[in-house]
Design goal:
Involved in the transposition of the insertion sequence. It comes from Pseudonocardia lutea. This is IS3 family transposase. The protein is α/β, with parallel strands linked by helices. Helices cover 43% and strands 13% of the residues. The protein is built from eleven helices and five strands. It has helices at 2-7, 12-19, 23-32, 36-54, 61-71, 78-88, 166-180, 200-208, 225-237, 247-262, 276-283; strands at 127-137, 140-149, 154-161, 188-191, 212-215. It starts with a helix and ends in a 7-residue tail after the last helix. The relative contact order is 0.12.
Amino acid sequence: MVRELADDGFSVAVTCRVLGVRRQGYYEWCSGVKSPRAQENELLLKHIEKIHAESRSTYGWPRVHAELTLGLGFAVNHKRVARLMREAGIQGLYRRRRRGCTLRDTHADRYADLVDRDFVVEGPDELWCIDITEHPTDDGKVYCAAVLDAYSRRVVGWSIDDNMRTALVVDALGMAITRRRPEPHSAILHSDHGSQFTSWAFGKRLTDAGLVGSMGSIGDCYDNSMVESFWGTMQLELLDSRRWRTCHQLATAIFEWIESWYNPRRRHSSLGMLSPVDYEAAHTPPDHDH
């Protein structure tokens, strides 16, 4: 009883006094016998270490706890998980800075803002958000465009290149259209006022697919905050995790991070601690399945 209460943070001295146990006797007993609670903690910590390693050392206690309870079926309190991780020196990655806004075309005014910072939708392929990010390597910059479904935070289309010409966003949009095949005039595509999104080629691809264009206000990254948040996650968990030697090395890592980790496995607090793929599988009506 003293050992179990000590594991929960109670003072050994106070506990021994209340229960009428010699403190020295307790420590002698501890030196040779592990309580069931201590044995459970050892097993639990092994699972925690495995989950943390498989998350690419990014998960903090909330997602580790979700993986233990939702993924492995453990009945464990989140405070216990947090304490074990703290004592073992296991930490997740936490965002400390916000990604700045990218440059906008201040003369563009192609589409009205149909979103008005409200990214809540009832089903998949009702609202897509698109944006571009960049990151340096030793032999030049890598540019990535991504199309995010607001319903599940799933990346439905992406493109990577060593430049940010219009083809970058057209290719990302093309992948999204091919993968999801949205009903004509049923999906909104929201972007900023970047010159790539006001180009003739991008506008034609948008129109041919029957998508409805939307743009936030000029120079305000919060009007596309959902995809900005996605970039922040990628920046923290992948882009800033190491030095990248070549553009090919980073492009391959981005592809693998999106398709093998973010979409199918990474748990989101805003999705009830499900991954985008699992969230769609659990909540999407059959006639919307992809």
